[in-house]
Amino acid sequence: MNDTPPRPPPSAPHRTASQPEQGRGKSPASRFLLAVSLVLIAFNLRPVFSSASALLPEIRTQLGLDALGAGLLTTLPVVCLGAFSPVAPRLAQRIGTEKTLLAVTILLALGTALRGIPSIGFLFLGTAIAGACIAVGNVLLPGLVKRDFPDRTALLTGLYTMALCGGAAGAAGLTLPIGHALGGSLGVTLAAWGLPALLAAVIWMPQVLMSKSIAQTRQIRVRGLWADRLAWRVTLFMGLQSALAYCVFGWLVPILRERGLDGVAAGGIVSASVMVQAAACLVVPHIAVRGRDQRVLNVVLCILSVVPLLGLLFAPLSTVWIWAVLQGFGQGGLIAAAMTVIVLRSPNPLVASHLSGMAQCVGYLIAAVGPLFVGLIRDWTGSFAACGILFVMLGLGAAWNGWQAGCSGHVHVRMLHVRD
User: Fold this and answer.
1) What is the DSSP string of 326-344?
2) What gap in Å lies between CA 9 and CA 215, rounded to an integer?
3) Which residue has the higher pLDDT, 416 or 389?
4) φ and ψ of 241, to 5 deg
5) Average pLDDT over residues 263-280
6) d(Cα 49, Cα 418) in Å, to the nearest integer?
7) Is the CB of residue 408 less than 8 Å from the CB of residue 293?
8) All domains of the chain in start order, with CATH
9) How far lies 68's CA from each of 99, 156, 292, in Å?
10) What is each CA distance from 43 to 155, 194, 221, 379, in whole angstroms?
11) Per-residue pLDDT tens for 92-113?
12) Which of 73-87, 169-183, 319-333: highest mean pLDDT?
């Protein structure tokens, strides 16, 4: 099979309702505003995970949630990421990328606020709504970078993945202090993270007003992606590294609290680790795009993620900060590498959005197994020690698929014009 995908002739570029004029045609001020808006949206795509993790013992106590329920709570948004990712490219083509992002950002604020109602049902409903919105946002960001910043791919990929980590770090480290400042109310503390999402929606509004995308009856369909071997390597790499990431987001605070740290200290350590992730997110894409391929980089980052995670699980608490910093660099680098290979393995923005949808649909369904198994292992064995085996297995799988996904080249697809 030919590894080089067909490209459209220069005189007839592929455009859809989600692909208006390229970003390079915009003024510097407009591009700057767009970049800031994207970063703010990305910041809001992770607090749902780590804010619940920081309060998991309190949630279980006040709402009567058992170990299985706690595992399902940490897994549910990851399942939603996989289940709702495929609808993102279709929504973007139907109503435009800008309008889609505005809608999901508003719904994200609503879903986050619903978690503040003192009810298990509303807790799970709000988490599911937020997870679905995060899924759509996750998928559309790489395509926007490919479309509007083709000359700044590494920088923008680094910035928005850094913002992803920053949101997770902020929620991990600030949730308990916010709760104490608000009088210890569990519901208000959980709902408070809807405010940054609402602010991001307001700041994104000018992008909708300036959007030139229009409805078109002639659409372009991407065919052959799900049969492409390289696309599956990218997908499995995304899924397995995400499983490690959501084990950290969902369970590292409870792991450290069980080892003897108080809640604020454990949250602070995880927050610092995720902030290091943010720094790695800014550096790794630049390394990735400068090399001939990303194979060695992906494997090294897998090692730097798993070994320190084992240190956090078993090493003396006096060394916890060392392991937290190392794990943050490895995990943040992995997140950025996975996002970068989606862009690098795609020949154009439309394929990037579809590859992003595939990688995150299947990838996050795989990732959902990670935090669920951590909860089950803790329940079955009475401790988190056996989770080390799970972490090693996930790391080996990520390394193998990361090596394959790091090979240079594009996924092989066909671009077909169809009429609605």
Assistant:
1) HHHHHHHHHHHHHHHHHHH
2) 23
3) 389
4) -70, -35
5) 83
6) 39
7) yes
8) 27-419 (1.20.1250.20)
9) 37, 39, 45
10) 16, 12, 31, 32
11) 888 888 899 999 999 999 999 9
12) 319-333
